Every structure is written in C-alpha cells, then in structure tokens.
Amino acid sequence: MMLGEVLAEVTRGGKVESVHAGHVVALNADGTIAFQKGDPTLPMYSRSSLKSIQASAMVRAGLDLEPRLLALVCASHAGTQMHQTGVTAILAKADLDEYSLQCVMDRPLDEELRRTSQPTRLAMNCSGKHAGMIVTCAINGWPIDSYLSPEHPLQQAIFKEVEAMSGESIVNTTVDGCGAPLFMFSLLGLARAVRTLTISTDPVHHSIAQACREFPEMVSGPGRLATRMMQNVEGLFMKDGAEAFNVASLPDGRAFALKISDGNSRAVPAVTAATLKFFGVDAGEKEESTFGGGKPVGTIRATF
After folding, report:
1. Residue 180, helix vs strand vs coil
2. Which of 240, 260, 291, 187 is nearest to 19 (CA)?
3. How many domains does one find in the chain?
4. What is the C-alpha separation between 293 and 145, in angstroms, rounded?
5. CA angle, 178 as apex, 190 and 75 as ends, to 5°?
6. How far from the centroid of its chain's Cα atoms is residue 40's Cα?
7. What are the C-alpha distances in Å from 118 to residues 79, 115, 224, 225, 247?
8. Nearest CA to 276 among 215, 213, 234?
C-alpha cells in the first residue's frame, strides 16, 4: 500500500511525537537492490526528481547549453537573481523571452525573496526546465505554443527517454504542478534511471550528471538540500522533488530513490543522510531539531 514503512521519527522531550512513513530503495553499483523499505515497485509520480531524465531527452533532441545553464534545466531553483538571469539566457538562445514560458506563476522558493517578491513565471522553480523545453522546440522547428501537450513531439521524446532509462513502461500521464506532463512509474524504476544517468557512456547522460555536479547551486540554491549535499559529497548527484521525493547517485553507480508517503518534506534530509550512511558516505548533515519555546527539545531522525 502507499503508506509503506516508518522511515523517520519526530521526537519531543525524549518521546516520539510523530512519524513519517514511506518507501526507499537503494541499488548496489551493479544495479542489484542493496536494501529497501516499503514497496519500491508501486507506481508513483516522481515529480521534479525526474528533471534530469527530462533534460536527457532535450539534449538528445539537440539542446546545446553550457554546463551552468544545463544544470538549470534540471533545477527546482530558488528563484534568486542568478537563477532568473540564467533562465533568461537560455531563452535568448532562441531569441525568446520570459513571455514564452507557460509554467505557472509563482514566487521564488528562496524564503526571503518569497516574502518580498511578486509571482512571475521567471521566478517559478521549474522555469529552467520550461526554458529548455522551449529552446529544444525552436531548434527542431516544433510548435512552441503547444510544448506542454502530451502529444507534442518533445513530450513524446521525454516519454520514450523515461521508459528507456527506467526500464519500465509508464502506466499513467498527468500534469505536474508547473503544467508539464508528468509520468507514473515505480520508485525502483526511478532509482534505475538515475543509476543509468550516472554510469552511462552516452555523452548525453554524462553531460547532464556532470553539469549538476559542477554547478549544484544552479540545481537548487544556497543552503538547500540538493545543493548542500552535492557540495559536501564529492561526485554525488542529487535531485529532490515535490511531495517529498529524492533521488541520488554516486559515481560508481550506487543509487537510491525515496518517497515520504504523506508528502511532507521535513523528513527527507534525515532519510537521505541515513541512506547515504548505508553506503558509507557522510553527507555532513546536522540532525534537525524540533523546538519548544524557541529552544531545541527534540529531533527529526531516520529509523534505519
């Protein structure tokens, strides 16, 4: 069932106050399952943790960007000036501007900017992905106005790339929060896809993984999970997603994917760090505290 197994506990005053259940699967370097919790074969919507796979289809279709901007195509960015300027630079490759974007309008994910900014499409965390989609369409002479349609040649190419990299058939297609098509397949398939991205000799895959490792601040933003972990662990690739998804891989092909069933992302850092610890990797994460009266009174900790 969707609930899975308890992956994290929230404590207060030495007692467990809440728990977060979910699913996690870790792969050995050879692709065999190292361990699992819950049921990683359940079909799920992997949300933004899929962006590097979507980017693979774009690059395969001719998208050619410098690594810094390619990392932004894979991003759920914080909406800082460097991110918004980067998205503008991607669109300029096709002599287009932010008004060609069809992602929803949103404020930046950066906490301070979110309080002080008005919603725009450029600030929306998926605008890099959308800019990459638009430029890919322009390169191929595909319609731009309909680039979000599941029947569009671009989205069909992404569909095929997801199936090829995951080794699974997509069981359902819906719409992601940003407006792009979203595909349902298993958590195990997602882990296998990111492992493929990591160890593939295909220059398309190599360029994407390397761009994200070289420019982790473009993939997310200062202090945010994927950025800080890629900065702390040499060779790590990571991409989180809405509804408490995360995927990661190491250069030798070890990889994992996780999903917190209630969609609450507060347990994701602890569960991610615990999974990396299983691989013998210290992510440099400090245990997150719970607070009472402004002082630490407990922690959010993984159960494995």
Report:
1. coil
2. 260
3. 1
4. 52
5. 55
6. 17
7. 12, 9, 21, 24, 31
8. 234
- For a pLDDT cut of 90, what percent of the chain falls above it? 97
Q: In terms of Cα–Cα distance, which of 243, 259, 266 is closest to 187?
A: 259
Residue 275's identity, in one-letter code, is: T
- Give pLDDT tens digits for 158-210: 999 999 999 999 999 999 999 999 999 999 999 999 999 999 999 999 999 99
Q: What is the CATH number of the domain that holds 224?
A: 3.40.710
pLDDT per residue over 28-73, tens digit each? 999 999 999 999 999 999 999 999 999 999 999 999 999 999 999 9
State whether residue 98 is helix, strand or coil. helix
Q: Quote the CA–CA distance of 239 and 226 in Å, as a whole number.
A: 6
The b/e string for 262-293 (b: 16+ C-beta within 10 A; e otherwise) is beebbbbbbbbbbbbeebebebebeebebeee
pLDDT bracket for residue 2 (50, 70, 90): confident
Instruction: Report how far residue 118's alpha carbon sits from residue 108's, in angstroms, rounded to the nearest whole number.
Output: 9
Query: Domain range holding 15?
Result: 5-302
Q: In what order do the strands lie in the sheet with 43-45?
A: 43-45, 181-186, 172-175
